[in-house]
Each structure stands twice: as structure tokens, then as C-alpha cells.
Amino acid sequence: MEYVAAGALGFLGGMLGGLVGVGGGVLFVPALVIFLDQTQVKAEATSLMAIVFVAALGAYRQYGYGNVRVRDGLVMGGMGVVGVVGGVAIANAVSGRTLELMFAALCLVIAAQLVRRVLKAGRAPARDRAPGRP
Amino acid sequence: MKLLVIGTLGGFFSGLFGVGGGTVLVPMLIFWLAFGEREATGTSLAAIVLIGAYGTIDQAIYGNVNPGYAALVGIPALAGVVTGAAVQQRIPERAVSLLFAALLVATAAELIF
d(Cα A50, Cα A55) in Å, to the nearest integer? Predict the structure, then answer.
């Protein structure tokens, strides 16, 4: 049953990525913590692996639409390694409880951003906004 | 130069939280480098493939990655991406955004308490 729930939240994460532009990891991590009893840091690690595949599919589709600046993406992604090493080191250094609270704060910030965007967007048509940000 | 800073910040955020980092990358590309929203999203996804791969390798060194569980959430997510794109024009985006916001608040509450 827990596996079904985790898979369902994974599905939802991917779908929300396509629909509202965020999703993916921000749902993968709680799915792993809540349903599969992973610690926060292990959930984050495993979420990163799942994200690679989801982002690859998203990038491939967006490339087809002509929305990917390949060189810029490679430069950003190439530099990302420096930040990743720092972020992963901190995630592993702080206590699980601290990381959990930081992640909860992240969820609240993203929720606030979504609400603000809805209020600001008013009646703008959905197709003016971009899909697929995990 | 700005791309390097954005990439580093996105990578840090991704490594720290185990998320893609689009939340950080996309607004910076739009406001700092005047990318269009679709271009910012597409380009950030390409960067996230690399950033996620480093993060996975780095976390694997710490012994934290569970590939079976990654497949368990990742494979349904792939189906979700396709479904989301297919129904995008047919469902009210504002309602979905608000529902998602509520889901995130519930998640935060679950993690805190």
C-alpha cells in the first residue's frame, strides 16, 4: 500500500511539473519520507536520482519545442557541480530534524509563490505560461 | 558570468533540498538574463539533468541513494509529465496551483509535527 501511495505521489509530482511548472522533487522527497520511511537526507538523495530522468524527458520535449538554449544549459549545468557539492555536504552535516524543518519552510515558500502567482495572473490564459519545471 | 553564478546557486539549492532547482533557476534566468518564460523553463531543465546527475553521484558516495525507490517514484512521474502536458489545455491552471499550494502546506505540517 505504501508503495502505491509513493508511486501515486510520484505520478502527481510529474504531472504538476507539466501543469504548474513546479513539482517533481518537492513531492518526491515527502513521498519517500512519509510513505517509504526514508530519512530526510536519504529521501533527498533518492529524489535527485528520480529527477534526472524526469528532467531529461522534460528537456527533450522542450528541446523539440525549441525552448532549450543548449549552450547556456550546459554552462549552467556544468557550474552546478560546485553548488551541488556544497549543498549535499550541508544536507549531510546538519541533523535530520533541521533538514526536515528547512524543507518544510521550502514547501511553504513555494506554496506562497503559487498563491501569489494565481492572484497576480488573474485571467491570463494558461498557455502563456511554460510547462515542465520539476 | 551570470550563467555561472546562477548554475552554482541552482546546484547548491538542488543539493541541499533534493529538488530540481527550477524554483531558483527559472526566475533568475527571466529577471537577470531576460529569458522568456518558456526558454527559461526548457534551458533550466537541461541544466537540471546535469545538476541532478552530480547530486546523485555525490549522495551515492555518502551511501544515501536508493535506486529502487528512485524508480518507484520516478517512473510514475514520467507518466505524470506526459499526462500533465496532455491535459494542460483542458483544466483550470489556477485551481491546480491552489490545490498544489494546499498540498505543500499539508506536507510542511506533516514534516514539522
Answer: 9
- Tell me whether residues B7 and A76 touch, CB distance under 8 A: yes
pLDDT in tens, B13-45: 999 999 988 888 988 999 999 998 888 888 999
User: What is this model's ipTM?
Assistant: 0.90
Listed residue (A62, A78, A80, A65) closest to B21, CA to CA: A80
The pTM score is 0.88
Q: Which of A25, A32, A70 sits opposite B19 (nearest CB)?
A: A25
* DSSP string covering B6-65: HHHHHHHHHHHHSS-SHHHHHHHHHHHH---HHHHHHHHHHHHHHHHHHHHHHHHHTT--
Mutate to test the interface with A, among B8, B69, B88 (most CBs of A within 10 A): B69
Task: Say how many CA atoms lie within 13 Å of A109 toward its Cβ.
Answer: 9
